[in-house]
Design a protein that fits this description.
This protein is α+β, with helices and mostly antiparallel strands and 197 residues long. It has one domain: Aminopeptidase (3-Layer(aba) Sandwich), CATH 3.40.630. The protein is 26% helix and 30% strand. It has 5 helices and 11 strands. It binds coenzyme A (COA).
Protein backbone atom coordinates (compact mmCIF):
# COMPACT_ATOMS: atom_id res chain seq x y z
CA UNK A 1 0.00 0.00 0.00
CA UNK A 2 1.24 3.51 -0.82
CA UNK A 3 2.88 5.85 1.69
CA UNK A 4 0.48 8.29 3.27
CA UNK A 5 0.93 11.72 4.74
CA UNK A 6 -1.40 13.70 6.96
CA UNK A 7 -2.23 17.39 6.56
CA UNK A 8 -4.30 19.98 8.34
CA UNK A 9 -6.99 21.65 6.23
CA UNK A 10 -6.42 25.21 5.15
CA UNK A 11 -9.06 27.45 3.59
CA UNK A 12 -6.51 28.89 1.16
CA UNK A 13 -6.68 25.52 -0.63
CA UNK A 14 -10.48 25.17 -0.52
CA UNK A 15 -10.77 24.76 -4.32
CA UNK A 16 -8.49 21.76 -4.20
CA UNK A 17 -9.55 20.14 -0.92
CA UNK A 18 -13.30 20.70 -0.68
CA UNK A 19 -14.45 18.89 -3.87
CA UNK A 20 -12.31 15.86 -2.96
CA UNK A 21 -13.67 15.88 0.57
CA UNK A 22 -17.28 16.10 -0.58
CA UNK A 23 -16.78 13.27 -3.02
CA UNK A 24 -15.21 11.03 -0.40
CA UNK A 25 -17.76 11.74 2.33
CA UNK A 26 -20.89 11.72 0.15
CA UNK A 27 -20.06 8.21 -1.10
CA UNK A 28 -21.07 6.78 2.27
CA UNK A 29 -24.07 8.98 3.03
CA UNK A 30 -27.67 8.38 2.00
CA UNK A 31 -28.33 12.16 2.14
CA UNK A 32 -25.25 14.13 1.00
CA UNK A 33 -24.51 17.33 2.92
CA UNK A 34 -24.86 20.62 1.08
CA UNK A 35 -21.75 22.71 0.48
CA UNK A 36 -22.94 25.10 3.20
CA UNK A 37 -22.62 22.39 5.83
CA UNK A 38 -18.99 21.84 4.85
CA UNK A 39 -18.32 25.57 4.85
CA UNK A 40 -19.97 25.98 8.26
CA UNK A 41 -17.36 23.66 9.72
CA UNK A 42 -14.35 24.53 7.58
CA UNK A 43 -14.59 28.33 7.73
CA UNK A 44 -14.70 28.31 11.51
CA UNK A 45 -12.76 25.18 12.44
CA UNK A 46 -10.57 24.34 9.45
CA UNK A 47 -7.78 23.80 11.99
CA UNK A 48 -9.79 20.85 13.37
CA UNK A 49 -10.02 19.13 9.99
CA UNK A 50 -7.29 16.64 9.04
CA UNK A 51 -6.73 14.73 5.83
CA UNK A 52 -4.78 11.63 4.83
CA UNK A 53 -3.27 11.82 1.32
CA UNK A 54 -1.51 9.25 -0.80
CA UNK A 55 1.78 9.92 -2.61
CA UNK A 56 -0.10 11.66 -5.48
CA UNK A 57 -1.81 14.00 -2.98
CA UNK A 58 -5.11 12.21 -3.54
CA UNK A 59 -7.40 12.37 -0.53
CA UNK A 60 -7.92 8.96 1.08
CA UNK A 61 -9.32 9.94 4.49
CA UNK A 62 -10.75 12.95 6.28
CA UNK A 63 -12.11 14.04 9.65
CA UNK A 64 -14.14 17.25 10.09
CA UNK A 65 -14.80 18.58 13.58
CA UNK A 66 -15.53 21.65 15.68
CA UNK A 67 -15.06 23.00 19.20
CA UNK A 68 -17.62 25.18 20.97
CA UNK A 69 -18.78 26.20 24.38
CA UNK A 70 -21.54 23.86 25.60
CA UNK A 71 -23.11 24.32 29.05
CA UNK A 72 -19.96 25.92 30.39
CA UNK A 73 -17.63 23.27 28.94
CA UNK A 74 -15.50 23.31 25.80
CA UNK A 75 -17.09 20.54 23.78
CA UNK A 76 -15.46 19.12 20.68
CA UNK A 77 -17.67 17.46 18.11
CA UNK A 78 -16.64 15.03 15.37
CA UNK A 79 -18.96 15.82 12.50
CA UNK A 80 -17.66 13.71 9.61
CA UNK A 81 -15.21 10.87 9.22
CA UNK A 82 -14.52 8.78 6.14
CA UNK A 83 -11.74 6.68 4.65
CA UNK A 84 -11.68 5.44 1.07
CA UNK A 85 -12.87 1.86 0.96
CA UNK A 86 -9.65 0.30 -0.33
CA UNK A 87 -7.65 2.01 2.44
CA UNK A 88 -9.79 0.90 5.39
CA UNK A 89 -8.60 -1.30 8.23
CA UNK A 90 -5.10 0.24 8.39
CA UNK A 91 -5.67 2.63 11.26
CA UNK A 92 -6.09 5.74 9.09
CA UNK A 93 -9.38 6.84 10.70
CA UNK A 94 -7.96 6.19 14.16
CA UNK A 95 -4.99 8.44 13.39
CA UNK A 96 -7.20 11.20 11.94
CA UNK A 97 -9.52 11.15 14.96
CA UNK A 98 -6.55 11.25 17.34
CA UNK A 99 -5.13 14.24 15.47
CA UNK A 100 -8.46 16.07 15.82
CA UNK A 101 -8.64 15.19 19.52
CA UNK A 102 -5.04 16.29 20.11
CA UNK A 103 -5.79 19.63 18.43
CA UNK A 104 -8.87 20.01 20.66
CA UNK A 105 -6.81 19.20 23.77
CA UNK A 106 -4.39 21.98 22.77
CA UNK A 107 -7.43 24.28 22.75
CA UNK A 108 -8.44 23.17 26.24
CA UNK A 109 -11.36 20.93 25.28
CA UNK A 110 -13.19 19.23 28.17
CA UNK A 111 -14.92 16.55 26.14
CA UNK A 112 -15.57 15.33 22.61
CA UNK A 113 -18.93 14.08 21.36
CA UNK A 114 -20.33 12.55 18.19
CA UNK A 115 -23.15 10.40 16.88
CA UNK A 116 -22.80 7.20 14.92
CA UNK A 117 -25.24 4.60 13.63
CA UNK A 118 -25.73 1.75 16.08
CA UNK A 119 -24.97 -0.70 13.25
CA UNK A 120 -21.66 0.96 12.26
CA UNK A 121 -19.38 -1.66 13.78
CA UNK A 122 -16.12 -0.21 12.45
CA UNK A 123 -16.87 3.28 13.79
CA UNK A 124 -18.11 1.97 17.17
CA UNK A 125 -14.99 -0.16 17.57
CA UNK A 126 -12.69 2.70 16.64
CA UNK A 127 -14.29 5.23 19.00
CA UNK A 128 -14.69 2.86 21.95
CA UNK A 129 -11.05 1.83 21.61
CA UNK A 130 -10.13 5.52 21.97
CA UNK A 131 -12.14 5.72 25.19
CA UNK A 132 -15.48 7.10 23.97
CA UNK A 133 -18.45 6.02 26.08
CA UNK A 134 -22.06 5.51 25.01
CA UNK A 135 -24.05 8.33 26.59
CA UNK A 136 -27.41 7.97 24.84
CA UNK A 137 -29.24 5.87 22.28
CA UNK A 138 -31.08 8.14 19.83
CA UNK A 139 -34.07 6.33 18.36
CA UNK A 140 -34.50 6.76 14.55
CA UNK A 141 -31.95 9.58 14.59
CA UNK A 142 -31.08 9.43 10.88
CA UNK A 143 -33.30 10.16 7.88
CA UNK A 144 -33.00 6.53 6.80
CA UNK A 145 -34.73 5.55 10.07
CA UNK A 146 -31.60 4.12 11.70
CA UNK A 147 -30.85 4.79 15.34
CA UNK A 148 -27.65 6.30 16.65
CA UNK A 149 -25.48 6.26 19.73
CA UNK A 150 -24.20 9.52 21.11
CA UNK A 151 -20.65 8.85 22.21
CA UNK A 152 -18.65 11.08 24.55
CA UNK A 153 -14.97 11.14 25.39
CA UNK A 154 -14.12 12.91 28.66
CA UNK A 155 -10.73 14.58 28.56
CA UNK A 156 -10.38 15.95 32.06
CA UNK A 157 -10.41 14.43 35.48
CA UNK A 158 -13.71 15.03 37.25
CA UNK A 159 -15.56 16.01 34.05
CA UNK A 160 -18.23 13.42 33.38
CA UNK A 161 -17.23 11.74 36.66
CA UNK A 162 -16.13 8.53 35.04
CA UNK A 163 -12.49 8.29 36.01
CA UNK A 164 -11.16 8.10 32.48
CA UNK A 165 -8.93 10.45 30.58
CA UNK A 166 -8.56 10.08 26.81
CA UNK A 167 -9.13 6.37 27.00
CA UNK A 168 -6.78 5.86 29.93
CA UNK A 169 -8.19 4.79 33.30
CA UNK A 170 -7.11 7.51 35.73
CA UNK A 171 -4.33 6.57 38.10
CA UNK A 172 -2.98 3.94 35.73
CA UNK A 173 0.66 4.19 34.69
CA UNK A 174 0.62 4.92 30.92
CA UNK A 175 3.54 2.49 30.54
CA UNK A 176 1.55 -0.33 32.12
CA UNK A 177 -1.56 0.00 29.98
CA UNK A 178 -3.25 -3.08 28.56
CA UNK A 179 -3.17 -3.71 24.80
CA UNK A 180 -5.21 -1.20 22.89
CA UNK A 181 -4.67 1.63 25.37
CA UNK A 182 -1.04 2.45 24.56
CA UNK A 183 -1.74 4.13 21.24
CA UNK A 184 -4.49 6.29 22.66
CA UNK A 185 -2.10 7.60 25.31
CA UNK A 186 0.32 9.14 22.86
CA UNK A 187 -0.20 12.53 21.22
CA UNK A 188 0.39 12.04 17.49
CA UNK A 189 0.51 15.61 16.30
CA UNK A 190 4.12 16.02 15.30
CA UNK A 191 3.93 18.78 12.78
CA UNK A 192 6.62 19.64 10.28
CA UNK A 193 6.08 22.21 7.53
CA UNK A 194 2.31 21.96 7.87
CA UNK A 195 2.41 18.18 7.51
CA UNK A 196 1.93 15.58 10.22
CA UNK A 197 4.28 12.64 10.31
C1 LIG B 1 -15.53 4.03 9.92
C2 LIG B 1 -14.31 4.25 9.03
C3 LIG B 1 -14.00 5.74 8.96
C4 LIG B 1 -13.12 3.50 9.64
O1 LIG B 1 -11.95 3.78 8.87
P1 LIG B 1 -10.63 2.87 8.99
O2 LIG B 1 -9.46 3.66 8.51
O3 LIG B 1 -10.86 1.57 8.36
O4 LIG B 1 -10.53 2.71 10.58
P2 LIG B 1 -9.36 2.06 11.44
O5 LIG B 1 -8.55 1.17 10.56
O6 LIG B 1 -8.64 3.17 12.14
O7 LIG B 1 -10.15 1.25 12.56
C5 LIG B 1 -11.31 0.53 12.25
C6 LIG B 1 -11.55 -0.52 13.30
O8 LIG B 1 -12.78 -1.17 13.01
C7 LIG B 1 -12.55 -2.55 12.70
N1 LIG B 1 -13.47 -2.90 11.65
C8 LIG B 1 -13.48 -2.46 10.39
N2 LIG B 1 -14.51 -2.99 9.72
C9 LIG B 1 -15.18 -3.76 10.62
C10 LIG B 1 -16.34 -4.56 10.56
N3 LIG B 1 -17.05 -4.67 9.45
N4 LIG B 1 -16.71 -5.22 11.68
C11 LIG B 1 -16.00 -5.12 12.83
N5 LIG B 1 -14.91 -4.35 12.95
C12 LIG B 1 -14.51 -3.69 11.86
C13 LIG B 1 -11.11 -2.62 12.32
O9 LIG B 1 -10.61 -3.93 12.51
C14 LIG B 1 -10.50 -1.61 13.26
O10 LIG B 1 -10.40 -2.11 14.58
P3 LIG B 1 -9.03 -2.73 15.14
O11 LIG B 1 -7.96 -1.68 14.94
O12 LIG B 1 -9.32 -3.00 16.58
O13 LIG B 1 -8.76 -3.95 14.32
C15 LIG B 1 -14.53 3.68 7.60
O14 LIG B 1 -15.00 2.36 7.69
C16 LIG B 1 -15.49 4.51 6.76
O15 LIG B 1 -15.11 5.45 6.08
N6 LIG B 1 -16.79 4.14 6.81
C17 LIG B 1 -17.82 4.88 6.08
C18 LIG B 1 -18.10 6.24 6.72
C19 LIG B 1 -18.43 6.12 8.19
O16 LIG B 1 -19.10 5.20 8.61
N7 LIG B 1 -17.93 7.08 8.99
C20 LIG B 1 -18.12 7.10 10.42
C21 LIG B 1 -19.29 7.93 10.72
S1 LIG B 1 -19.32 8.26 12.47
Amino acid sequence: MSKLHYVQYTNSRENEYLPAMRQLISKDLSEPYSIYVYRYFLYQWGHLCFMAMDEHDTLVGVVVSKLESHRGAQRGYIAMLAVREEYRGQGIATKLVRMAIDAMIELNADEVALETEVTNTAAMKLYERLGFLRSKRLHRYYLNGNSAYRLVLYLKEGVGSIGMSYGIPLGMDPNQLPMGYQDAALPVSKQENGQFL
